[in-house]
Specification:
four-stranded antiparallel beta sheet
Length: 120
Amino acid sequence: QMQLAESGGGSVQAGGSLRLSCAASLNSYCMGWFRQAPGKEREGVASICSDGRIRHADSVKGRFTISRDNAKIILLLQMNSLKPEDTAMYYCAATSNYVDYRRQADFPYWGQGTQVTVSS
């Protein structure tokens, strides 16, 4: 049974940084971060796969960095230069498919989310 648990969310001022973590109970081929702001649809942020493929959405390139460690069962998202537009619930997801963050429908396993609030 796959279980994903996010942590590290919080409140920060614009320009600040946060590091999100996701602990997975089982290994998976690809993992990703997604976010959903109030009244908006969930969108992909970044993804990483076991073959080394890393992708970041244009909206976060140069600011966010996705990584993986602990035998690939810990997913991280380093968020720098945060903007108010980054405010959202951030979700960790995993899949055995070879896909990236643009294919969120192909990520069957999801965490409960962690809130990130960026003030101006």
